[in-house]
């Protein structure tokens, strides 16, 4: 009769660990998606901040790049790649304009918020991808059920 108690205990422990693993992996994937949404919001906010400089001398290229950023959604993989290219072009153009006398604290703050959102998103994606290789996650085949989070390959706007 003692073997039945041991068997029930083992099944309960394995079940609890499986439940904990599934919850953790799903939570990390939700956080990665939320961080991506926040990153996109900060990128859009930065583009809107740049659009406030319409008509200012020296900002023509940056405003055009900001318009291209706003025009490209990130729904498909191809659109996402185009958005990454547009964001990188905008970041480089803003970096070149950093010494312009019309440069404002709003642009600095927008760049810092983008850099922070980018770092947070990268951290959550790293954690979510790592959770997919947990032994219980592999046994339960969670990597087939949950879409793999993707990194955003954009330059750090603060450097």
Q: Could you give a short description of this structure?
A:
The chain has 159 residues and is mostly helical. Helix content is 74%, strand content 0%.
Characteristics:
single chain, 159 residues, mainly alpha, 6 helices, NUDIX hydrolase
Describe the structure.
- This protein has helices at 2-51, 60-71, 77-96, 105-131, 135-139, 142-145.
- The protein is built from six helices and no strands.
- 74% of the residues lie in helices and 0% in strands.
- The radius of gyration is 22 Å and the shape is elongated.
- α1 runs antiparallel to α4.
- The chain is mainly alpha-helical and 159 residues long.
- This is NUDIX hydrolase.
- It comes from Glycomyces luteolus.
Structural class computed from helices and strand pairing? mainly alpha
End-to-end C-alpha gap: 67 Å
- CA-based shape: elongated
Q: Could you tell me the number of beta strands?
A: 0
Overall pLDDT: 88
Please tally the helical runs, counting DSSP H or I stretches of 4 or more residues.
6
Low-confidence stretches: none
Strand content: under 5%
Largest sheet: none
Rg (CA only) = 22 Å
Helix content: over 70%
| N-to-C order of helices and strands | HHHHHH
